[in-house]
Amino acid sequence: MLRLILLGPPGAGKGTQAARICQKYSIPHISTGDIFRKHIKEGTEFGKKAKEYMNKGQLVPDDLVVEIAEARLIEEDCIHGFLLDGYPRTVVQAEKLDKFLSERNVSIDKVLDIKVDKEELMTRLIGRRVCRCCGATYHVINMPPEKEGICDVCTGELYQRSDDTAATVENRIEVYNALTVPLIEYYDKVGKVAHIDGSRKLDTVSSDIDAAIGDRE
Ligand code: AMP
User: Fold this and answer.
1) How far is the CA of 86 from the centre of ligand 1 (A)?
2) For a tag site, which of 100, 154, 199, 212 has the least CB within 10 Å?
3) What residue ranges define each of the domains in the chain, with the CATH number in brackets?
4) Is 89 among the catalytic positions?
């Protein structure tokens, strides 16, 4: 039984770490950002609304997000745990999540707070490329694919997320500092936060995460 929240600014490496954690601990990866991108791709009503906010680097309004997140959390695969990546992102969402979990007599085990400084985040995000087919991520300079524009894993086409442009990235980092950083204090008060330095090598960050997960009460 493992219920985790992954916090960290855009570009902190949450997606990469999430994939590894979920495989290692056999829990589903719940990324509200991924769910929203799927809605946009499928052209749903929700997707149309979400897109307006996402492309500006703003948060999707709490009521919409909470509805989508709770609908996902009641699915059967979440009974024995989950990793929330990108949710909650505001104190209101965290309060709603607490209520949702306590009504089911469960709670969050650990909040992993990955920190990376702004300059590094900008470099990582603006150079990020994602595979359209399998979601694998690359970096044009730090981790280029073997063939430009082609995924090493599945030969899918690589693209730049529409919210990974310089102006939007800057805004997303500001939104994170203003609205999501207060969550760290919210969870710190109940002693659930593990602070992780995300600027180091991937494996080092992973080891710290495993130690923090092993350390839960
Ligand atoms: P991500 O893939 O987590 O970086 O999310 C991409 C975008 O989706 C964010 O910049 C927000 O516009 C939106 N989003 C994802 N999760 C949330 C959330 N929990 N609350 C509000 N907006 C969200």
Assistant:
1) 6
2) 154
3) 2-117+176-211 (3.40.50.300)
4) yes
